[in-house]
Structure formats: C-alpha cells, structure tokens
Amino acid sequence: MGLLNLLFGNKDHLIKDFIDRGAVIIDVRTPAEYKQGAIKGSKNIPLQGINTKIEDLKKLKKPIITCCASGMRSGSAASILKKHGIEVINGGGWASLKSKL
C-alpha cells in the first residue's frame, strides 16, 4: 500500500462503493474530447457549464463520480459539486476510471 493510500484511503474502494450505489459518471471534458472516447453511460457536462447543472444533478439523488482527461478538471468539478452538498468523488482521468469499472 502506497503512502497516499495510507493517508487518504484507496480511491478504488470509494469508486466501487459509489458504483454499487448507482453513481452517475459526469465527464467534464469538452464535447469534442468526449466524442473521441468516453465511458459508456457517462454524461458529458463540460466544466465551464457545471454550475448551470447543479439543480439537475441534485434531483438525481445519486452519488456522482467526475472524470476528465487527467483528473485536474474533474477535481475542480468535484469541489464545486461538494460545495453544493452533492456527494461526489473525483474519478480522475476517464481512461483510468474506465479500467476500474
């Protein structure tokens, strides 16, 4: 187990827990990036538009996993959603997240 896992826990377990509870995967890349490849069933809401979708996401009443290309934008999106009381984790890069599903 790596030092980061010791300090922050294993994200793989969190991802599995979220998926088991019906999590929605939100890909915050641009539509052009999303079209080049994405996780099946994920929803594309670009980071710059995430604030306009807060109420829609709350209505889902499900945990959310954010993803992007590398994990930077999805981290920003997760922070925004957390501030609005949404249960969310940053899944990181979409390709890496896809391999964990």
Folded structure, characterized:
- The protein has 101 residues and is of the alpha/beta class.
- The protein has a single domain (11-100), classed as 3-Layer(aba) Sandwich (Oxidized Rhodanese, domain 1).
- 47% of the residues lie in helices and 17% in strands.
- The chain is built from 6 helices and 4 strands.
- The protein has helices at residues 3-8, 11-20, 31-35, 54-60, 72-83, 94-100, and strands at 24-27, 43-44, 64-68, 88-93.
- A 4-stranded parallel beta sheet has the order 2-1-3-4, sandwiched between helices.
- It is globular.
- The two termini are 20 Å apart.
- Mean pLDDT is 90; it is low at 1-8.
List the helices and strands and how they pair.
Elements: H1 3-8, H2 11-20, E1 24-27, H3 31-35, E2 43-44, H4 54-60, E3 64-68, H5 72-83, E4 88-93, H6 94-100
Parallel strand pairs: 1-2, 1-3, 3-4
What is the straight-line distance between the termini? 20 Å
Provide the CATH architecture. Answer: 3-Layer(aba) Sandwich
Rounded mean pLDDT score: 90
Query: How many domain regions?
Result: 1
Secondary structural class: alpha/beta
According to CATH, the homologous superfamily is: Rhodanese-like domain
**What is the alpha-carbon Rg in Å?**
13 Å
Global geometry: globular
**CATH fold group:** Oxidized Rhodanese, domain 1
| Helix content estimate | 40-55%
Numbering strands along the chain, what is their spatial order in the largest sheet? 2-1-3-4
CATH class: Alpha Beta
Residue windows where pLDDT falls under 50 for at least 5 positions: 1-8
Number of strands: 4
For the biggest sheet, the summary is: 4 strands, parallel
What share of the residues does DSSP label as strand, in percent?
Answer: 15-25%
Q: How are helices and strands ordered from N to C? A: HHEHEHEHEH
Number of helices: 6
